[in-house]
Design goal:
By secondary structure, this protein is α+β, with helices and mostly antiparallel strands. 18% of the residues lie in helices and 24% in strands. The protein has one domain. α1 packs parallel to α3 (112-120).
Length: 196
């Protein structure tokens, strides 16, 4: 889906909205701010996107039905059409960098605020919203993080979607069941011309 742009980016340099982007609603911004206030910055491992492969493997259980290192976790209550093996994390890759570059997080259906809370758990505690771009079939959000920038001049991009039972993406979703993460170069702007 987004190996070239790797959905979740990481770092600084993109704090003002770009043409075609919309500012984050106050509720979303306050959720990020409250997380930062309760999570003092310290020498902590990166929890998800941008983690070293060793750190990821130490904190995530491989999915029993997948032995190729691309699927982790097991939640049999996830819809079969979304996660046939029950994998919570799928399509994970590091592109030979020894640092997690992209993956999908399969979720139970949640509204945008809960989806963003789950996304924040995958990011360093110093992550802040760089830009927020709702599109016809998805919602993209990018995050700056000094931690990710120090790890490789990254920012984190995330694409939220609602995948329907027929495998198609819902149009104009107001709830989501999948978050795709990838690392991008610091300061990468939103691209409203790039489809979901």
């Amino acid at each position: 889906m987004v190996v070239g742009c790797v959905v979740v980016g990481a770092a600084a340099g993109c704090s003002s909205p770009s043409p075609g982007s919309t500012p984050s609603p106050p509720a979303r911004a306050s959720a990020v701010e409250s997380r930062r206030a309760t999570s003092p910055i310290q020498d902590e491992p990166i929890p998800g996107i941008g983690a070293t492969r060793a750190a990821w493997d130490a904190s995530h259980t491989p999915n029993a039905e997948n032995s190729d290192g691309s699927a982790y976790g097991d939640d049999p209550s996830l819809p079969l059409y979304l996660a046939p093996s029950g994998a919570v994390y799928s399509d994970l890759g590091d592109l030979g960098t020894n640092r997690v570059q992209f993956y999908d997080l399969n979720m139970h259906t949640v509204d945008v605020d809960e989806a963003l809370r789950q996304v924040l758990r995958e990011l360093p505690s110093d992550a802040t919203v760089a830009w927020d771009l709702p599109l016809a079939q998805c919602h993209r959000v990018a995050f700056n993080s000094a931690t990710l920038q120090a790890a490789g001049h990254y920012m984190a991009d995330v694409q939220l979607e609602y995948i329907q039972e027929d495998g198609m993406k819902a149009t104009g979703p107001d709830s989501f069941n999948k978050a795709s993460f990838w690392l991008n170069d610091v300061g990468s702007p939103p691209d409203p011309e790039k489809g979901c």
